[in-house]
Amino acid sequence: MTKHFHLGLILANIFLLGLGCRPQQQPQSLASQKTYTNTQFGYEISYPQTFSELNAMSEAADLALNFPAAYTEGTNLGEAHIITTAHVGLTSSTAPKCLTNPYTGVLLTQTVMQGGEKFYTYDIDDAGAGQRYFYRAYQTFRANVCYTVLLQLHSSAIENFDEAQRPRAYDHGAVLAAFDKIFTTLTFQK
Predict the structure, then answer these.
(1) What is the pTM of this model?
(2) CA separation for the pair 62, 180 (Å, rounded)
(3) Domain count of the chain?
(4) What is the domain-level CATH number for residue 6?
């Protein structure tokens, strides 16, 4: 009887500790979503209404989204953006430029299928002066257009904060899951 009581107490503590490890707010489902349609380049992508559109971060960006505060508030994550681009004028001889990691110059080999298209993907981690940068991209070459869906994250190193004022670490897995879920909504018009 005592063994069962102790086992039950241990399991109850593990359960209660596990509750404290959850992110403050889970990402919103895509049930209430907005859809961005680009008729010029023939694609659309959907995202939760809680994401806000930013003014184009560059002239090349078709759509730039900011993650909602639920992902960043009280954490070390300073910026989280999703950017879609379509670069025209590429030919089959310049297509490899689209399928190359822009940071390393290496031809991309890892692929995923989305909307009947093969996308090449890469992740990049970078750091400097207590700042961390993470990028995940999906790229494809279709009808002489290079399409990219890019996640950009900028966070501060937790260890650089005074212990008394240290924010909690952002939930990297939840951010990646939200991005990948948005990416899976990308479709091309035939």
Answers:
(1) 0.80
(2) 18
(3) 1
(4) 3.40.1000.10
